Structure formats: structure tokens, C-alpha cells
Amino acid sequence: MPTKKIYQILKDREERLTPRRRAIIETLSKNGPWSVDLILPELKKRGLPANKTTVYRELNFLNNLGLINELHLPGRKKYYEIQTEHHHHLICSKCKKIKQLKLPAILCKMLADVTYINNCTITNHHLEFSGLCNRCNK
Ligand SMILES: [Zn+2]
Ligand SMILES: [Zn+2]
After folding, report:
1. Cβ-contact 83, 64 below 8 angstroms
2. Which residues contact residue 59 at a Cβ distance below 8 angstroms, ignoring those fewer than 6 apart?
3. Is the predicted pLDDT of residue 72 greater than 80, yes or no?
4. How far apart are CA 83 and CA 68, in angstroms?
5. CA 129 to ligand 1 centroid distance, Å
6. Which residues contact 87 (CB under 8 A, 6 or more apart)?
7. CA 39, 102, 73, 119: dihedral to nearest 10 degrees?
8. Which domains can be identified in the chain, with CATH numbers?
9. Where do the annotations place Fe cation binding (predicted)?
10. Which residues contact 51 (CB under 8 A, 6 or more apart)?
11. Quick one: angle between helices 19-28 and 3-12, nearest 10?
12. Which residue has the higher pLDDT, 76 or 55?
């Protein structure tokens, strides 16, 4: 989702776009995902220092509006990214970075079959991979 669209949604909902909120959205729109610990120095760089509680509050606010995504990564602190099309993550065992990973669409469609096999309703799935990222895989 482009940042412009996020600003428009906030405007439509008559939510305020404070400089700090804008800075957080701009940060998240750069290559992520981002944890609060990574976001804090970015805010400081922009002359908008904040504490963790404030940033968490902002992230929860954006998450509740469905504008950002909270990642489900086992054994990791919370990471966030701008809401984008469905994708997965690779956790690099060397540089420890989390990279976005696209799977062949058919794989995700096959996962939807779980619904039929179990007679339940699956609305989403979170599938993470570990290994070497494109940079470390050299
Ligand atoms: Zn790596
Ligand atoms: Zn998927």
C-alpha cells in the first residue's frame, strides 16, 4: 500500500497525521520489516525522538486500522510492515535479517485446501522460512 493511500485513509477517517505518525509510516514503507528497536533510531534521526510506549501505541493504532501488518515470527520480538499483498518471510540464519519472500501462488492456494480437508474456515496463514538470504547466499 503506497504511503499516499495510507494518508488518504487517515484523512477520510478524520485521524490526525502528526509528524511522528508520518515518520513512522514513512519508515515502515522502506524495506522492512521493522521492529520498535529499529524504528526508534529512525525517528531520532528525523528529530522526532519517541519512547517505546509511544511507538507501540502508534503501531497498534495503525494495525487496528489494517494499514500495517504485525508479523508472527516464532522466538522473535514483534515486527511490523506496511500492508501489502500476501507474502512470506525468510529469516536469514547468517545476517539475522528478515526478508520478504514470494511463493508460487499455487502453493498458497494449496494451503487453502486445509479448509476443505478439515471442514473449517481458514482466513489466512503465516508461513516463515529459515535459511540464507540472497545476500548471504553467495
Ligand atoms: Zn543474510
Ligand atoms: Zn501464503
Report:
1. no
2. 24, 36, 68, 70, 80
3. no
4. 5
5. 13
6. 100, 101, 102, 103
7. 140
8. 3-82 (1.10.10.10), 88-131 (3.30.1490.190)
9. 86, 125
10. none
11. 140
12. 55
Helix H or strand E segment including 5: helix 3-12
The ligand with the least distance to the CA atom of 109 is: 2
Sheet strands (E) in the chain: 34-35, 68-70, 79-82, 88-92, 98-101, 128-131
Q: What is the pLDDT of residue 58?
A: 97
Q: At residue 44, does pLDDT exceed 90?
A: yes
- pTM exceeds 0.85 for this model: no
Bind-site residues for Zn(2+): 92, 95, 133, 136
What's the 89 CA to ligand 2 centre distance in angstroms?
10
Q: Is the pLDDT of residue 12 over 90?
A: yes
Distance between terminal CA atoms of the chain? 31
Segment 15-30 shows an average pLDDT of 95
Q: Among the bound ligands, name the one nearest to the CA of residue 101.
A: 2
**29 C-alpha to center of ligand 2: Å?**
21
> Residue 22: what pLDDT?
96
- The length of the chain is 138
